[in-house]
Amino acid sequence: MEASIEFLTKKLTNRDIRPSYQRIKVLEYLYRKGGHPTVDEIFRALSPDIPSLSKVTIYNTLHTFVEMGLVRAIDIDDTEMRYDITLSNHGHFLCEACGTIFNFEVNIDQIPIEGLNQFKITEKNVYFKGLCPNCLNQLSHRKKEQK
Amino acid sequence: MEASIEFLTKKLTNRDIRPSYQRIKVLEYLYRKGGHPTVDEIFRALSPDIPSLSKVTIYNTLHTFVEMGLVRAIDIDDTEMRYDITLSNHGHFLCEACGTIFNFEVNIDQIPIEGLNQFKITEKNVYFKGLCPNCLNQLSHRKKEQK
DNA sequence: GTTCCTGCAAAAGCTTTGCAGAAGA
DNA sequence: TCTTCTGCAAAGCTTTTGCAGGAAC
């Protein structure tokens, strides 16, 4: 995905976020790497390039990004929060064997619901859990070996 | 909701869970109170009746219940896990003002999705966030007062 | 008698807070 | 100059773990 300094800086200033070096680097990582990284993942990836970097800054940065609508916070993992640069409506699938989170298409606005007539909805989430194809394969191979 | 000792004991033994006093009390609370209590909520409610009760036991008990399919764990709150005795398919709505969680009807199996053909799905969750009617009312009243 | 459960104490792990110095406008 | 940001240290919180005594079967 494109992630030039100019592109990243504009993304930030468009949302009234000062384009500090750390923020640009975090945003760059989110675009470059994609997926649904944790704070720790981002920290470990950027730390070598920015020796002075603190985890607190990652927390601060991501809070700002979420507040300003630049990224989505995903609370699917039991222990750590995850962050997603993809804003379009989609669901999340957590593989309980390998921990990977996959996106899948779901038209959230078309989900038929009942009982929320008087409610103001600001956020919709769909998340599934189970086993991804990779882990399913490995499991079936193991079973064969045991025979 | 009915919650006699016999009923609760049977619910436990049906799932191969030994009906200890603590477990019966926790299960009774879940049936009686309903809703989506946290560990701390349950602990504070039962502690007066069971002075020796430990929070660890609540954790242990709920883990067992979830593992044995007696209750559902809900990870909608950012900080604390919540537990739900209602097993039927339904969505959860978190009011970001008062923190209350509401159930709503959603036929999860009919949600049209794409991209999970090879996946084994074991759990489906739908949760929304926003403002409940009560909090919406209070907000509009405050605005009127400010005029 | 043997297995399982409870609860104390402590630890673990993620996240937040207070604050001083640095950077940016 | 004045506001904002960064990062260290410490604290806050929920949850987990180790272990010894007790309960259940």
Characterise this structure.
- The structure is a homodimer of 147-residue chains.
- Chain A contains 5 helices and 6 strands; from the N terminus they run ααααββββββα.
- In chain A, β1 and β2 form a beta hairpin.
- The longest helix of chain A has 14 residues.
- The interface between A and B is large, with 37 and 37 residues.
- The structure holds a DNA duplex (25 and 25 nucleotides).
Provide mean pLDDT of chain A, rounded. 91
What does the main sheet of chain A amount to?
A: 3 strands, mixed
Strand order of the largest sheet of chain A: 4-3-6
Overall SS class of chain A: alpha+beta
> Helix segment count of chain A?
5
Rg from alpha-carbon coordinates of chain A:
18 Å
Distance between the amino and carboxyl termini of chain A: 46 Å
Helix-residue proportion of chain A = 25-40%
> Which regions of chain A have little confidence, pLDDT < 50, spanning 5+ residues?
none
Largest interface: A-B, 37 and 37 residues
Counting copies of identical and different chains, the oligomeric state is homodimer
